[in-house]
Write a structure and sequence with these properties.
single chain; 347 residues; alpha/beta; six-stranded mixed sheet; four-stranded parallel sheet; 16 helices; 10 strands
């Protein structure tokens, strides 16, 4: 087995970032240190947290600089600091073993948060143009021709700390990183949504980048009916020149305005869990730099409209907070593997 290095990429918060961005960055930094120690215990030769302030370098450029220092035949495990907070020791060993002996392994080959790559210096030659980590498995398959196995059937490995809502969903000490005032609105909605999911006469609306596996789980474990609008899967791995993002719910809001969200969703069901990033991509495009700033998005996820500066997103958040049915807004984790945390026991 070849030597294996682990690179954990962590983006530091800026000094002038808001409190929700700061809290998320601190949680991700703590998880990065847990990963560093955990991968060393799993047999990695070295594990490094690659950190620094935001800059204009792509993910591929950052990865290339790490790979350049590896042994010629060494492997690498690459992940973000917020990735896979629920990973087990055995799963860490599986990634280390894959990087040291075989081709590639990812938590999800279609949108990866953690990837193991054997013989990394040769395999990753030319990776500098890659914009994000999510598309790394596809790049490996198409450029050096490395087939990447994945573990997407293990829903826990799809959980990612992208924002403060994920800390609420994870519960425990993660949840405690937020103030009770920040958590209260979404925690109240989670309790109401759980009651809807247990009601055989009710209907739960799920919209966004959810999957067939998640919908199958909902059918098996909830008694309410499920109405699903599945759209823009692969949003983060889209290539230049592809069809721009579009959303059925987003088109309704184009016509009636973001303040109409609660009225529309109340006609469709008794509770709703909505991927608001799909709505932002529909309105502003897939490039997150054109979206409202992270502090605004995080405040929206926590249903705190008074802390959202962007007018459109503030109106959307107010509509969700004031709706006659309980509504949650969030990202891919919320409508994907995070649904199990929303509807399961709150830890």
């Amino acid at each position: 087995m070849s030597e294996v290095a682990v690179a954990i990429f962590h983006r530091q918060a800026d000094a002038d970032d808001g409190p929700l961005v700061q809290a998320t960055a601190a949680a991700r930094a703590a998880l990065a240190e847990r990963h560093r120690a955990g991968f060393l215990a799993a047999g990695a030769s070295c594990a490094e947290i690659v950190t620094g302030p935001p800059d204009d370098r792509s993910f591929g450029e950052r990865l290339a600089s790490v790979v350049a220092s590896l042994p010629v035949d060494g492997g690498v495990v690459v992940l973000g600091s917020g990735a896979v907070p629920l990973i087990t020791a055995a799963e860490r060993r599986a990634f280390v073993d894959a990087a040291g002996t075989s081709g590639g392994l990812a938590n999800n080959r279609y949108s990866a948060d953690i990837v193991a790559i054997a013989r990394a210096r040769a395999t990753l030659d030319g990776v500098g143009d890659l914009a994000t980590d999510n598309a790394l498995p596809r790049w490996l398959a198409e450029t050096p021709g490395v087939e990447v196995r994945d573990l997407r059937h293990r829903w826990r490995l799809g959980i990612d700390i992208d924002g403060p809502l994920d800390l609420v969903l994870l519960g425990g000490t993660w949840r405690a990183r937020l103030t009770s005032a920040d958590r209260m609105p979404v925690e109240a909605r989670i309790a109401r949504i759980r009651a809807v999911a247990r009601d055989p006469g009710a209907e739960l609306v799920v919209a966004g980048r959810t999957s067939a596996a998640t919908l199958s789980w909902l059918e098996r474990t909830t008694t309410a009916r499920t109405r699903a609008i599945v759209e823009e899967r692969g949003l983060r791995t889209a290539r230049p020149g592809q069809r721009p993002p579009a959303s059925v719910l987003g088109a309704l809001l184009d016509h009636d305005g973001p303040a109409s969200l609660g009225t529309h969703l109340a006609r469709l069901g008794d509770a709703a869990i909505i991927d608001s990033r799909v709505l932002l991509a529909h309105r502003l495009g897939a490039d997150e730099r054109r979206w409202p700033v992270p502090e605004d998005r995080f405040a929206s996820d926590l249903l705190l409209p008074e802390r959202v500066e962007d007018p459109w997103l503030r109106d959307l958040t107010s509509a969700a907070a004031d709706a006659p049915i309980p509504i949650l807004l969030g990202g891919h984790t919320l409508v994907g593997p995070g649904l199990r945390l929303v509807l399961g026991p709150h830890r």
